[in-house]
Amino acid sequence: MKSKWWIGALAALVVLVGGGLAASWAPDRPVESLKARWAAPASGSKFVDVRGMAVHYRDEGVRTDAEPIVLLHGTSASLHTWDGWAAELAKTRRVIRFDLPGFGLTGPFRGDGAGQWMNEDGGRYTPLNYAKFVVATLDALGISQPVVLGGNSLGGQIAWETADYLRATQPARIAKLILVDAAGYPFESKSVPLGFRLARIEGLAPLLENTLPRGLVETSVKNVYGDPSKITPELVDRYYELTLREGNRRALGLRMRERMALAPERIANITQPTLIIWGGQDRLIPPINGERFAKDIAGSKLVKFETLGHVPHEEDAMQTVAAVQAFLAGK
Question: Which end of the chain has less neighbouring CB within 10 Å, N or C?
Answer without folding.
Answer: N
